[in-house]
Amino acid sequence: MATTEGQLDGKDGGGEPQIGWRHTFQQVKGDPTARFGLYVIAIATSIAVFSAVDANLSRATMGVYPDYTIGEWLPVLENPERMPPPTEMEPYQPPVFAEGGSWANPLGTDQAGRDYLSRIIYGARVSMAVGFFATFLGLTGGVLIGAVAGYYGGRIDDVLMRFVEIIYSIPALVLVIVFTVFVSGGNPDVIYAVLGVGIATIPVFSRIIRSRVLSVREMDYIEAARAAGVKDRNIIRRHVIPNSFAPVLVYATLQIGFAILIVAGLSFLGYGAQPPTPDWGQMLNHAHGQMHVNPWMSIWPGVAILITIMGFNLFGDGLQDALDPRIDN
Amino acid sequence: MNQNTILSVDGLRTHFYTEQGVVRAVDDISFDVRQGEIVGIVGESGAGKSVATTSILRLIEEPGEIVAGEITYQDTTIVGFDERSDGTLVPKDEMLTNRQMRSQVRGNEIAIIFQDPMESLNPVYTVGNQLQEFIELNRDLSGSAAKKEGIDVLREVGIPEPEARFGDYPHEFSGGMRQRVLIAMALACRPNLIIADEPTTALDVTVEGQILNLVSDLQEEYGTSFIWVTHDMGVVAEICDRVNVMYLGKIVEQGPVDEIFYDTKHPYTKALLESVPRPDRTVDELNPIVGTMPSAIDPPRGCRFHTRCPDAREACREVDPQFVDVSETPDTEHRTACIKYDDVGYWDSVPLEHASEQDTSYIDEDQRPENRDLEQTEGEP
Amino acid sequence: MTLLRYTISRFVQAIPVLIGISFITFVMVNALPGDPVAIMLEGQEVDRETIEAVERRYGLDRPFHERFVTYMLGLVQGDLGYSFHRDMPVSQLMWIRLGPTLMLVFSAFVFALVTAVPLGVLAAKRRNEPTDHVSRLVALVGVSTPSFWIGIMLILIFAVWLGWLPSGRLVYPWRDPAHYGFDGRLELYYQTIRHLLLPMVALGTLQMATIMRIERSSMVESLQEDYVQLARAYGVPERTILRKHAFRAAQLPIITIVGLNLSTALGGAVLIETVFEINGMGRLLIQSIQQLDYQVVMGVTIVLATIFVIGVIITDISYAYVDPRVSYGDRE
């Protein structure tokens, strides 16, 4: 990021007035809803990143030692001989506010007696990872395809954009399901979901980049660079892509939310993250079957998805407002 | 006040409350329009000309507001305030309600022609549809009678085959033809006063000439009064009877067109005249006005033009010039707001050093957002 | 160019895209490692000869490109292959399953448009007032919530707790009322609506939220247009401005977005059909994937993509029809 930021701040001038990152940051900072979105993203990201080292992981995945909080767990880690025997776990414990619930499992337990709250917290890992990596993949692929298509035009443009149109025509979820199941050889896993969502995301990015490239490449300074003998590849890398970055950034933010949505659906159908990995969609899959017996199980994973995606949407909207020169509040 | 006066604007102030501060787009202007004359409002873009005219129709929108002044059209009060004992201004009782404005004034008494003919017609309705709607609203004509009137007016403004063109969409007309359509809309409502807001700016020079001729002819025929907003002194010379020169929200000079051209008083008016080629005078070179107009958020103290004025002196920074009558004869009504013509010490004052550079020393550089932007964009290749 | 010729040219242009869709689907589905027949017949007592015989019968022993050509030749004639599992032609299966999906998706868009357009207009009119803030919040939540979860919640509330509406399955208005044991058409239609209500809302919420956002920003922009200002200056009442002058041009982006969003709606239908146990294309896809009935998987994927392509063409034509500025030759 450091290099692109530098180039964007620099004076190699775009087709439209350059909007410095500092200005964008100020705008986003001044917008309470965008700020709120940023907080949600930050919290979800830190949960996803830092929960890896937390002992609660076992509580969420395997369900051993459900009674230990982090504070209690640390001394035990230092003295392994004090490790207590695994506790017996009750499946389908109701949440604390329902009859028979307890603070030990504030949101109750799942089918294996694992703490539901912990599983929801750990569910952030899969969603966030898939969201970020799939979007990164789609962005990289899309930017490459869009930049090449827009810059070279002609036959290359036709072929690439037709390909993009084909990918776009298959409904994203259908594409991702078929890809995940069949390309994985019938053993779907998160990694195929990331690949699938990444491919499904390519069209959005390539179209934005292409249209930007089409306008940027007519600029005088690109002509000048070409006349000065700069290689096409370098022109694209150094001038075209950095100058097209603002709208891509907005879409990337919104697209992470979309990727999380798709993967939640995929997991809900049973083709995303596989047990015992905690994942929101997969939890809803089981909860769907428990709808009449344990209706509360359906609520929390959905709320978690909603809040996370809302974070990205809020931030993306704020970013868009900040980068859009037409809105001059 | 002259008894032929149909519109009088007195002490009008229209401000916009933005996050950056209060934009004093129109700041205490007064002028009037008499029956059958064309009154010009001239100035650079951003001087507040359009805000002044939209204020007359009370079409100012959030975050803008008419904060003071009086606008009287014939015997009705379009804008008027009473001062309460605590100094606050409240709208007068006799001021027209929004509904009255809509049904009694807009369109049927005062009509408007906008600057950009390409944007002023709704692209998804036919020209005839829009024209007919306005006629039905503002005259006691309906259905086929309104349509017939619409076609007649289109013919009158010089649109060939008006019956056929009536059902065409705006994009099927050229810019000049669209402006004729807009003029037709204004005429068809038979208003007493037409506000033309830079109606020829977006057009080719040849088309502009045709439109100006058309307006002169129609004006003679119908006797309609016009307020003609423009930045072009040439247009003023061609059609206006009296002129108001606006700079940064204020009128700096007003008077009959001949007086303004041949007995120019205000340095800004002079600068405007020197910045355009004039057929009646031979000059060695054009003399454009230097610098850009300061922001209306933080207008310069004293005379607002002093930062760009070639004649500025120390006193101009301090003294807010009053309107003074500079008429040679009693009935010319030539006024200007420049302290040269007022006895406030201009002639004893030291000339400002800047010659004609932009002077921003009166305010801290960093506090002016538009200055920062300027520097950035000017640094670009 | 006339509208008809424009329409024809649009369909002709779609042909390579449709071929590409078929190709990509074919590649994906055939990327399945291992022997499809063996996987399909797994658990059954079969010997090598039987497997080979089945493969020969369906041409699976031939190289990839030959199989693709054969598949495509069939496709052109409306032959989408054969479902091993259901023992019937895929095309026949499609005809049965297409109705429910189209009904679901269509009703979801009707719901979305009927709610989103007035709300978006209202939000634009009362910009930055409480009405606007509330509707923007609703739209934000709407675009952030997974449709299948909305479905589950709706079932929980309206079927399980309140017991007002059925929790799943659809009633099809084109069937004989006697099939369901209803007396007469009227009850059939009433039940159709009752059954459709929850899945329609679940699938339509995302569309509603998206359309609402675009309607709002489009109307806000439209209300600031010069031609709207001109109408105001000629004394047109604010109601007419909203309904006529600002409204029509502001609907153009809505037309485009409805076409493009058909993609998310068709994908969402897969989930909603699963949640509500609706036997449409989406549920068929999931069932066939579980059974590795790959001819059906290919068929469903291609048909869904084709619906999308046709939908986009239809919205493009409507756009050209509504916007007088579009000259049919200029658009791609």
UniProtKB/TrEMBL annotation, chain A:
It comes from Natronoglomus mannanivorans. PROSITE patterns: ABC_TM1 (PS50928). Belongs to the binding-protein-dependent transport system permease family. Residues 124-316 form the ABC transmembrane type-1 domain. GO terms for biological process: transmembrane transport. Residues 1-20 are annotated as: Disordered. The chain crosses the membrane at residues 36-53, 132-154, 166-184, 190-209, 248-273, 293-316. It is a multi-pass membrane protein. It is found in: Cell membrane. The keyword Transcription regulation does not apply. One of its GO terms (cellular component) is plasma membrane. Its main location: membrane. InterPro entries: BP-dependent_transpt_permease, MetI-like, MetI-like_sf. Keywords: Cell membrane, Membrane, Transmembrane, Transmembrane helix, Transport. Signal peptide: none annotated. SUPFAM superfamilies: MetI-like (SSF161098). This is ABC transporter permease.
Automatic annotation (TrEMBL), chain B:
It catalyses: Ni(2+)(out) + ATP + H2O = Ni(2+)(in) + ADP + phosphate + H(+). It is found in: Cell membrane. GO terms for molecular function: ATP binding. Keywords: ATP-binding, Cell membrane, Ion transport, Membrane, Nucleotide-binding, Translocase, Transport. Its EC number is 7.2.2.11. Residues 355-381 are annotated as: Disordered. Its main location: membrane. CDD domains: ABC_NikE_OppD_transporters. InterPro entries: AAA+_ATPase, ABC_Ni/Peptide_Import, ABC_transporter-like_ATP-bd, ABC_transporter-like_CS, Oligopep_ABC_C, P-loop_NTPase. SMART domains: AAA. It comes from the Archaea. Pfam families: ABC_tran, oligo_HPY. Residues 7-273 form the ABC transporter domain. Transmembrane segments: none annotated. Residues 365-375 have a biased composition (Basic and acidic residues). It is a peripheral membrane protein. The complex is composed of two ATP-binding proteins (NikD and NikE), two transmembrane proteins (NikB and NikC) and a solute-binding protein (NikA). This is Nickel import system ATP-binding protein NikD. It comes from Natronoglomus mannanivorans.
Automatic annotation (TrEMBL), chain C:
Belongs to the binding-protein-dependent transport system permease family. InterPro entries: BPD_transp_1_N, MetI-like, MetI-like_sf. This is ABC transporter permease. PANTHER family: DIPEPTIDE TRANSPORT SYSTEM PERMEASE PROTEIN DPPB-RELATED (PTHR43163). Its main location: membrane. Pfam families: BPD_transp_1, BPD_transp_1_N. It is found in: Cell membrane. It is a multi-pass membrane protein. The chain crosses the membrane at residues 12-32, 102-125, 137-164, 252-276, 296-322. Residues 98-315 form the ABC transmembrane type-1 domain. GO terms for biological process: transmembrane transport. Keywords: Cell membrane, Membrane, Transmembrane, Transmembrane helix, Transport. GO terms for cellular component: plasma membrane.
